[in-house]
Amino acid sequence: MNGIFNGIPLPDFAHKLEYDCGKGCHMLVYTDLSASAFDESCKKIAEGGFILHSENKIKDNIYRTYIGKVVVHIYYCGIEKEMRIIADPNKNLFNPMPENCKKVYPVTLWQYEIDHSLIDCGMCIIVRCCDGSFFVIDSAHMYSVIDDERIVAFLTKINGGRKPVVAGWFFSHAHEDHVCKFLDIVDYRRSEIDIEAVYYNFPSAENEHNIYWGECGLAVMNRFEETMRRNPDIKCINLHSGQRFYVRNLEFVVLCTHEDVFPNSFRDFNNTSTALMMSADGSKVLLPGDCSIESDKVIVRRFGDYLKCDVVQVSHHGHTGTSPEFYRLADAECALFAVTQIKFDEELPRQEANRTAIALAKEYHIASNGTAEIPLPYKFGQTKVYPDEIFENFNGIFNLWTYEYTDEYKEKLYNEFLERSKRKG
After folding, report:
1. Is residue 421 part of a domain?
2. Which range marks the domain in which residue 370 is found?
3. Pairwise CA distance, residues 315 & 292, whole Å
4. Of 43, 30, 42, residue with least CA distance to 82
5. How far is the C-alpha of 197 from the C-alpha of 92, rounded, in Å?
6. End-to-end alpha-carbon separation of the chain, Å?
7. Exposed site from 32, 209, 244, 281, fewest CB < 10 Å?
């Protein structure tokens, strides 16, 4: 057992598995337990001098976070009869209580149109809090070449020309299409933006579960951690399953991390995604990032109709991700696809999950067709779509990815772009 557990009063019964979670965290997994055994384990931790920081209950799942010489996060999942104990040396903690946030601005969500001219994937969702600060979800791909400039410029514009404050920046996982432009913003544009905190949970790059991950993904994950070390003024908050936290007037609940997927396969790096449920002014927004098959099993099994929401971000850009059942449970009126029109059209015939999300929704929006502005609380008919800003670079796409399209198809796409770009913002 890792030494981080020394001094933590653990149960008398043996754990089944141990997992290196990354960032110095380690997890013990206990199986075939009752809820009363979980309560006794929590009582033992509290009697050992650890102070309860927060607790949450969703369905038959109970989550508690304690503070002591390390952070101890302990949770019980009733349907699995399983308890997990995480020892976390990272003591920057989330805010477990609603903040006193004076309502100056209406809460608004934007699915931002990233630079998709060379790449079909990438995601950036922006939420304006009631005080005018922002919560941002992911950023854009390394091939979205100018998006460090564009994202900061967009935030500045919707902030009335004033320097934007990002109260929280959340990262679903460490793929290059989700974190790279944030890293460029931190490296090259810190003077143009204030960033208070980042929220994430990336796995360790140094255990047996990373054997299938590409060198690019590992390099990006390592660059992210190094960037955070070089910028200690940005508070890093390590998230764990079931935690409820607040950023200004926004409420978030962590539904799943890689810690929940273990010991199942991480061969698909997307299964290391952290999924969130956001609540704002009575509306719920489900944010699975790139959660894939193994993550989906955890979320659907544990949460069921708790997933009901108003707006759903479709997982993994509408490529293979979460299941049709995930979207049936979400039953969202608005679906967001962080993808290009080209890839959306290619995926739709083969992805039942996408068709399910669309069939249930009153509206859906494809990121490449223009930034979608959605006031919260959500109400159908209030979404505004900005003019389409960027068209595909077909020669660049072919050189990078060898995708080729007919001249007729290119002309059709270009004419559709011209029509969308005439829309008034």
Report:
1. no
2. 108-407
3. 8
4. 30
5. 10
6. 58
7. 32
Assess if residue 418 is contained within a domain. Answer: no
**Residue 218 lies inside a defined structural domain of this protein:** yes
Q: Please check whether residues 183 and 41 belong to one and the same domain.
A: no
Hey, how many other C-beta atoms are within 10 angstroms of the C-beta on 99? Answer: 14
Instruction: Cite the beta strand spans of 60-131 per DSSP E.
Output: 61-67, 71-77, 82-88, 108-111, 125-128
- Measuring CA to CA, which residue among 138, 223, 137, 228 is closest to residue 190? 228
- 425 residues of the chain, pLDDT tens digit each: 899 999 999 999 999 999 999 999 999 999 999 999 999 999 999 999 999 999 999 999 999 999 999 999 999 999 999 999 999 999 999 999 988 888 899 999 999 999 999 998 899 999 999 999 999 999 999 999 999 999 999 999 999 999 999 999 999 999 989 999 999 999 999 999 999 999 999 998 776 666 667 777 788 888 999 999 999 999 999 999 999 999 999 999 999 999 999 999 888 999 999 999 999 999 999 999 999 999 999 999 999 999 999 999 999 999 999 999 999 999 999 999 999 999 999 999 999 999 999 999 999 999 999 999 999 999 999 999 999 999 999 999 999 888 889 999 999 999 999 999 985 44
Residue 380 DSSP class: T
> Does residue 293 contact residue 271 with C-beta atoms inside 8 Å?
yes
* Shared domain check, 132 and 15: no
CA–CA dist 87, 89 (Å, integer): 7
CATH number, domain with residue 400: 3.60.15.10
Q: Is 204 in the same domain as 173?
A: yes
